[in-house]
Amino acid sequence: MARYVGLDKLGKLFGYIRDNGGIRASLYKLYRMDEMKTGRQVGQDKYGNKYFEDPSQFYGRNRWVEFAPHFNMEYDASQIPADWYGWMHYKTDLPPNRDGSRAHYPWMEDHSANLSGTKNAYMPFSTTRPKVEAWDPKKPAAKLD
């Protein structure tokens, strides 16, 4: 009977609020991630991102990442390191913190996020003049013959 009235959904909502740390923390998580999930924390990378899994959700939506708070609202998928990327996309079932067979060599570089489109994006220095110049409204127009 409670299922037909919707009381089970209300109980599930209260369970989500409890698991996420109360009403205030749940609203913050809802604001930041546009959804409120609960699950088992599988691990955390060295950048502060937390990885979760909930087998009761359907395949493809049962693994997710909560980005570190220092990213604020400026987070994207390139901030996930390669080893956790493989786990997030079901290339392996073992998360990197439990998989001892992953190779780590001294010549491997540390992960860095893709900064394209941000103010910190790489801009190469060039000594050649551009072929196209920006329009300057104060500069008199060149006469065409």
Q: How is this structure best described in words?
A:
- The protein is α+β, with helices and mostly antiparallel strands and 145 residues long.
- The chain has helices spanning 2-5, 7-19, 23-33, 82-88, and strands spanning 40-44, 50-53, 63-66.
- The protein has a 3-stranded antiparallel sheet, with no helix packed on it.
- Strand 1 and strand 2 (50-53) form a beta hairpin.
In terms of quaternary structure, what is this?
single chain
Described by strand count, sense and barrel closure, the largest sheet is: 3 strands, antiparallel
Shape: flat
Contiguous low-pLDDT stretches (5 residues minimum) are: none
Distance between the ends: 87 Å
Which structural class do the helices and strands define?
alpha+beta
Mean pLDDT: 85
Could you estimate the helical fraction of the residues in percent? 10-25%
From N to C, what is the helix and strand string? HHHEEEH
Rg over CA atoms: 24 Å
Number of helices: 4
How many DSSP E strands?
3
Estimate the strand proportion: 5-15%
User: Strand arrangement, largest sheet?
Assistant: 1-2-3
List the helices and strands and how they pair.
Elements: H1 2-5, H2 7-19, H3 23-33, E1 40-44, E2 50-53, E3 63-66, H4 82-88
Antiparallel strand pairs: 1-2, 2-3
In short:
By secondary structure, this protein is of the alpha+beta class. It has helices at residues 2-5, 7-19, 23-33, 82-88, and strands at 40-44, 50-53, 63-66. The longest helix has 13 residues, at 7-19.
Quickly list its features.
145 residues; alpha+beta; three-stranded antiparallel beta sheet; 4 helices; 24% helix; 9% strand; flat
